[in-house]
Specification:
The chain has one domain. The N and C termini lie far apart (about 40 Å). Helices cover about 15% and strands about 25% of the residues. It is of the alpha+beta class and about 210 residues long. Helix 1 packs across helix 3. The strands form two sheets. An eight-stranded antiparallel β-sheet has the order 4-5-6-7-11-10-9-8, with helices on one face. The protein has a three-stranded antiparallel β-sheet with strand order 1-2-3. Strand 6 and strand 7 form a beta hairpin.
Length: about 210
């Protein structure tokens, strides 16, 4: 049974944990191939379920976000989120844009959805209220990621932060989606994103 937008929003409200942090500006871009299999539609608003104390695999998963699979059109992403989203204008000569919560919360965006060539490519998370697979949240130690995904994590040096790094998690089954955690020099997770290759690896997002 498909979840209604209202129920999905209720779920993401529950899937975000207690506190929120300021979030960075959404990243920038370039578009994909294979898409992971998508779990059954969630029974509550993806926005609400994304705000629970534990990870909900029906909302945050390697196949997409809630019932919106990677590759889906903008309307499907809006339905999955279940709350207003504003489409940012793409840069000159670009087809990449972000769908952002409207209005953006005082502390900054919590989840932003990247669209390119009319398809859903990735989502960026900048709030500890949204729980990643492995029950990992922003503010956790990088060791939690390594423990949660043994043999599935590739480490890469951060492009801009000296001593920082990216932890790139592959799905259990072969596919084009990846879960990427950004880690500061102290070993703390500062943000994360989920999406298709190559877009999920774009450091500047749509820039």
């Amino acid at each position: 049974m498909r979840a209604t937008p209202l129920v999905l929003a209720a779920a993401v409200a529950l899937a975000l944990v207690a506190c929120a942090e300021p979030a960075p500006t959404p990243p920038a871009v370039t578009a994909p191939d294979d898409v992971e299999a998508t779990p059954a539609p969630v029974s509550a608003s993806a926005a609400a379920v994304a705000h629970q104390a534990v990870h909900d695999p029906e909302v945050v998963h390697f196949g997409g976000f809630g019932p919106a699979a990677f590759g889906a059109d903008e309307e499907q992403v809006r339905i999955a989120w279940g709350q207003p989203l504003e489409s940012l204008p793409p840069g000159e000569g670009s087809t990449c844009t972000y769908l952002m919560p409207d209005p953006v919360p005082p502390g900054g965006y919590e989840v932003a959805f990247m669209m390119e060539d009319g398809g859903f490519r990735r989502y960026d998370v900048a709030s500890p209220r949204v729980v990643a697979p492995g029950d990992v949240v922003i503010g956790d130690d990088a060791g939690k990621v390594l423990a949660a995904f043994p043999g599935r994590v590739e480490e890469m040096p951060h492009k801009y932060v000296e001593g920082g790094r990216y932890l790139v998690v592959s799905p259990e089954q072969p596919g084009e989606a990846r879960l990427v955690f950004e880690v500061d020099p102290d070993g703390t997770i500062t943000e994360w994103r989920m999406g298709l290759l190559p877009q999920v690896l774009y450091v500047e997002g749509c820039s």
